[in-house]
Amino acid sequence: MTFWLVTVLAMLAILSPVLMLRPSRRDQRLGMLRQHARQAGISVKIAKPPLHDPPGGLVSYRWRYPQAHPGPLFVLVRAAYASTALKPFDTEWRWRIEPLRPLSQDTAMELARLVARLPEDALVLESERGALTLWWRESLSLEAFEACDKAMGEVRDRLASPHAEKGLSGRLP
């Protein structure tokens, strides 16, 4: 009897670390979300966000601009994580870095619609020459992320277009 008890306990001791290594449901959801994003051409990176004293768990999702049409440089930060000294974009977002050239009225309206639709855990929307980047905690389901992906892609395309900024006569500088 003690032989079988010792054998069962030994087997449990061997199997328990293996069972502990199984990903949780959240880890499985994040893995599927990240895989879906990568398959859609979005690069996913865990890095330090452009925030002072950022909360943990922020991940960047990057929608690349076409190489022939780089995007404008700007950084929008959710107002709850931004200094009140920063210029407001709307009631929920503030400019950390404003675009050098003002965005056209249509592009600014598209950008305002996008940030209004972003999830609450989206804290930074950053545009650099190479990509439009969303810093967030990955709270969306796959279905909800597809809608976010579509909206981000549309804004990225509008920002990359030669007519996105005021004063441009159909060509990039």
Protein described:
The chain is of the alpha+beta class and 173 residues long. The chain has one domain. The protein contains 4 helices and 6 strands, in the order H-H-E-E-E-E-H-E-E-H. It has a 6-stranded antiparallel beta sheet. A hairpin with a 3-residue loop joins strand 5 and strand 6. Helix 3 runs antiparallel to helix 4. The relative contact order is 0.16. The C terminus is likely disordered.
Topology record:
Layout: H1 2-20, H2 25-39, E1 43-45, E2 59-64, E3 74-78, E4 93-97, H3 105-117, E5 124-127, E6 131-136, H4 142-160
Antiparallel strand pairs: 1-2, 2-6, 3-4, 3-5, 5-6
Helix pairs in contact: 3-4
Quick recap of the structure?
This is Preprotein translocase subunit YajC. With 173 residues, the protein is an alpha+beta fold.
**Overall strand count:** 6
Average pLDDT reading? 85
Number of separate structural domains: 1
User: SSE order in H/E notation?
Assistant: HHEEEEHEEH
Rg, nearest Å: 22 Å
- Level of helix content? 25-40%
Uncertain regions spanning at least 5 consecutive residues? 166-173
What profile does the largest beta sheet have? Answer: 6 strands, antiparallel
Strand content: 15-25%
> Ends: how far apart?
84 Å
Number of helices: 4
Please state the structural category: alpha+beta
Based on CA inertia axes, which overall geometry fits?
elongated
Tell me the strand order in the biggest sheet.
1-2-6-5-3-4
Organism: Modicisalibacter luteus
Protein name: Preprotein translocase subunit YajC
